[in-house]
Amino acid sequence: MIDVNIYRYNPETDKFPYTQTYSIKKPEKDIMLLELLNILKEQDSSISYRRSCREGVCGSDGMNINGKNGLACITPISQAIKKNKIELRPLPGLPVIRDLVVDMTEFYAQYDKIKPFLQNETEPPAQERLQTPEDRDKLDGLYECILCACCSTSCPSFWWNPDKFVGPAALLQAYRFIADSRDTKTAERLEGLSDPFSVYRCHGIMNCVNVCPKDLNPNHAIGEIKSMLLSNKKKENIIVSDGAS
Amino acid sequence: MSIKPVYINLFKIQLPISALLSISHRVSGMLIFFMVLPFSAYLFNILLASQDSFGLFIETYNSSIFLRTFVLFNVLIFEYHVIAGIRHMLMDFHIVSETLSASSNSALTALVTFAAIALLTILGLT
Questions:
Q1: Choosing among B1, B2, B3, B4, which should be mutated to test the A contact, i.e. which has the most A CBs within 10 A?
Q2: ipTM for the whole complex
Q3: Nearest beta carbon to residue B16 from set A91, A203, A210
Q4: pTM of the predicted model as reported, rounded to 2 decimal places
């Protein structure tokens, strides 16, 4: 038997959240955590969680599994279980709508802020904007993000300033477009991130890298953005001082 | 509409060693600002005021274990902040690569360095 301890909250009936433990026979096969949740839901249909693709592509079932954010659908129970117990909590730092379902409005607002689309005002060619293989390679490790919010919700800076700090997920996407050779709004994108909060609240604690279910490295992208902001400032200072002299 | 609860339990949420180093670096920075710096300025004032006050302080320092421990504590906080800060800068300047293993190893190196320097400080001051 294994104990699955789940965070429960129903806004219609509960004043405060609480946890509930379900004992379940340990499955013979090493199934994924989402399957285990599905079995539990047959016992208690009131358990709420998001899920869709069940193969780590949609990013719906992000949750805090034994203290570490991850996707339930690609986390085997053998990996999740600790001392015969699995503790499931909603993603930290975001308002809980019900049980393991969180309100991701703030997360998407930050994603919206970085303008996650290609901006190029030059005349489009007849077929498509081409890239060299080298330029295309620069997007590897950036475009694969599925926006599951595991990284941003494991970041203490995002917990304290979800409205001002863009967060690792959106910053990874910001760098995805900054690094794209076809995008012509690099300067504007960097300008939009140059305030004290958007990027500089990241202190490189690496929790985003630690939890990313797709093994991406938002911390590296943030470091690159910081370096570009710094070299932009240097260039501005040189231009200003040249103008003055 | 009622306020939705937010789950944040620092005792339950796992943080890597680099996170613990970064958080403790900030805490030590706050302690330096609110405790170490004012205490050092006060001490500096006493030590430089006159020969008598200097002598009195040395006498008190030698006789009071509380004062000796407090001074040691202040020095250790400062040392910790400097060592963790150097690691932070090495990462910011991309000298330490931004991977989880490099970050954890550099955090561990910083802690071992601090432990060695702390040991030397304790041996030197006591």
A1: B4
A2: 0.86
A3: A210
A4: 0.88
